Amino acid sequence: MSEENDGKKFMFVNRRAPYGTIYAQESLEVVLIAAALEQDVSLLFIDDGVFQLTKGQNTEGVGMKNFSPAYAALGDYDVSKLYVEKESLEERGLTLDDLQHLTWEDEDDDWAEKDSIRLISRDEVKKLIEEQDVLLSF
Amino acid sequence: MKYAIMINEGPYNHQASDTAYNFCKAALDKGHEIIRVFFYHDGVNNATRLGVPPQDDRNITEKWVALGKEHDLDLSVCVAAAQRRGLLDEGEAQRWGKDVNNIAEVFHITGLGQLVEACIQADRLVEFGD
Predict the structure, then answer these.
(1) Which of A128, A42, A46 is nearest to A89 (CA)?
(2) B4, B78, B81, B115: which is the annotated catalytic residue?
(3) B94: CB partners within 8 A, 6+ apart
(4) Do residue A10 and residue B119 have CB atoms under 8 angstroms apart?
(5) Which residues in chain A touch residue B116, judged by CB atoms under 8 angstroms apart?
(6) Nearest residue of chain B to residue A15 (CA atoms)
(7) What is the average pLDDT value for chain B, to the nearest integer?
């Protein structure tokens, strides 16, 4: 997928932990539809939202559906921009190693496999949000 | 300006739907256009016609129905979120073998594509939730 896209710039802001509420799971459903409709989709994970991307999730104890494998499919939907706020990770004692290794294949670079997760600072978040056409916050 | 509205919380427990209603009313009064009101997450519960709030309280669903009729609003309810929570129109109730449907008039069941489409067409998406 090229970085250029004729669609609007949609950013999904994920602020909540993956379980406890359904926001994260239902947010992902909108992401997939926006991607299917060929919009320029990116995801931002801040606050407890960074927990959504942690690897090794096991929901057996809470009896909720473990939907975390779906994040690995985002690359196939041309969703290649998953921004994670560095400060939110640090405040929760997490590092990049605690997150799933998510990748996408760059059509413009001989289908090279590239990392989808991009660590950004709180200051960069502000700039990124300003660049968007549509913000969906969950 | 063309607005798309998204409501993510159910009635009464949260103020989101009340605030969205007031926003829509004010925007329409000022001559703006509301291209779609999309109910998602627990927001789909705003569409039930079976709610019976106490008489000295507002009936949020009826307020939406009245506003929808007055301004010919598109009140869209996400089908997947609605099915999960037991919000069914006549067709859905039949399809799933349920003995009742509960979608109020004016509201209609639709898909997430309609939300994304509204975001594309609108100048602004305004989201009401938590």
Answers:
(1) A46
(2) B78
(3) none
(4) yes
(5) 10, 30, 33-34, 37, 39
(6) B130
(7) 97
Please tell me the predicted confidence (pLDDT) of residue B130: 86
Fold of the domain spanning A9-137: Hypothetical Protein Ychn; Chain: A, (3.40.1260)
ipTM: 0.93
pLDDT on residue A2 = 46
Q: CB A30 to CB B115 under 8 A?
A: yes
Q: What is the CATH classification number for the domain harbouring B16?
A: 3.40.1260.10
pLDDT tens track for B47-68 = 999 999 999 999 999 999 999 9
**How many domains does chain B divide into?**
1
How many Cα atoms occupy the beta-carbon half-sphere of A55 within 13 Å? 9
CB contact under 8 A, A33 and B40: no
Is residue B119 among the annotated active site residues? no
